[in-house]
Amino acid sequence: MIGHLNGRLAEKNPTELVIECGGVGYEVRISLNTYSAIGNDEHLKIFTRLIVREDAHLLYGFHSKDEREMFGHLTSVSGIGPNTAMIMLSSLVPEQIAHAIQSEDVRTIQGIKGIGAKTAQRVIVDLKDKMLKFAGVSENLFGQNNTNRIDALTALVSLGFERKSAEKALDKVSTGGDDSVEFLIKHALKIL
What we know:
Elements: E1 4-13, E2 16-21, E3 24-30, H1 32-38, E4 43-52, E5 57-62, H2 65-75, H3 82-91, H4 94-102, H5 106-110, H6 117-131, H7 139-144, H8 147-158, H9 163-173, H10 181-191
Parallel strand pairs: 3-5
Antiparallel strand pairs: 1-2, 1-4, 2-3, 4-5
Helix pairs in contact: 2-3, 4-6, 8-9, 8-10, 9-10
């Protein structure tokens, strides 16, 4: 219903922001990853998902389409509501969640506050096939099962680099062997 908001940042805190668009201030709930990615930009575009409940209309915002898509996948799992999905997206970036689901890493998913063993297993069973199509997951990352590369990508994204640019830099750096995370980051930074 509301795909994105493009406007002036009026207020910002780690769980919520207010974006002024056309004289109207929209309250948007965000993850910590989105909070970090926004920085201090005065004008921004935020991708949104509107959740309608009996007692409220809640707008959730995301820095990237990948994060919004992951939110949709997570909320489709029985037992995971929008707030739990936002906690998951605050704890891990979408690529890490997709990797944990793809590699059936129950421990990583269960390590997120509010997620028990049964819910973690349900997430894996319900979403494993969907993660192959997930736009934020590079197939070659999972094909090689290279966790160092995923960790390096996550670190570069958290430093503020665009995910696609970071992936291209890592592709140029990769020697095909098991490079350390530090090696990959160090050489990718030279390219970026």
